Amino acid sequence: MERTLAPHKRIALVAHDHKKEELLQWAIANRQKLLQHRLYATGTTGTILEKTLGQSIHKLLSGPLGGDQQIGVMIAEEKLDILIFFWDPMEAQPHDPDVKALLRLSATYNLPVACNAATADFLFTSPFMTSEYHAVQTDYSTYLKRKLPETNL
Question: MGS-like domain: from which residue to which, for each copy (predicted)?
Answer without folding.
Answer: 3-153
